[in-house]
Every structure is written in structure tokens, then in C-alpha cells.
Amino acid sequence: MSWELVVKDKFSSAHFLDHYKGKCERMHGHTFEIEAHFKIKENQLDKSGIGIDFTKLKAHLNSLLPDHRVLNEVFDFSPSAENLSRYFYYKLKEKYPVSKVIIWESDYAGAIYSED
Ligand SMILES: [Zn+2]
Predict the structure, then answer these.
(1) Range of the domain at 67
(2) Dist. CA 24 → ligand 1 center (Å)
(3) Cα–ligand 1 centroid distance for 23 (angstroms)
(4) What is the pTM assigned to this prediction?
(5) Which residues are bridge partners to 14 per DSSP?
(6) How many domains in the chain?
(7) What is the CATH number of the domain that holds 70?
(8) Ligand 1 mean position, distance from CA 101 (Å)
(9) How far apart are CA 106 and CA 60, in angstroms?
């Protein structure tokens, strides 16, 4: 028996894509949505039935987000949805049992990173 806990947050930032030909090579902004999933097994629930406190997960996730920044200045990689989901996955893994991270660039397009 297992659960997948999910927390969501948003950040608004600008970026452009390196080595890309098309409109996304120019600076533009998104309100990125991030979803982080965490795997919990039954023996990890505490007496109140909680695997990991959502309040702690949300606060930690929020502390990692580069809100109102130019992502190309923050990161040393091209800030695509693919690279961002992988980056946040490994940042979260330093502290919690993350299983996947989803970065939505819009309501209709996003990237999911996991180690599968
Ligand atoms: Zn973009």
C-alpha cells in the first residue's frame, strides 16, 4: 500500500531558450505551475495518518522557487520545462522522497521528470 502526496505552487518568471529557433528564443514570461509528487508507504504514516505534513512540503517547495526572476540568469542551463522539472526534482530529493516533478508552462503544455 502506498500513497503519492502532491503539492502545487506557481512562480512567474521570464526566460528564453538557448540554441532554439522560433519565438521562444526571445525573452518572454510564464506563470509556471509546479507539481511535486512524493511516495509514502503505509509504515511511514504517523499516528495522525500523515505521511509528510503538507504545510512543510509546501513551504519547502515555495522556498526553492525563482519567482519574478530571469531564469537564464538564475540557472546555468537552458530553462526549458524539461530542465526545470529535473532541477526541482533533485533539489526536492535532497530533503524529501520525491517521485516526480511536473512543470507546466501553460494550461496546455508541461514536462514531467522522474527517474523511471
Ligand atoms: Zn517559455
Answers:
(1) 2-113
(2) 6
(3) 9
(4) 0.94
(5) 29, 70
(6) 1
(7) 3.30.479.10
(8) 18
(9) 23
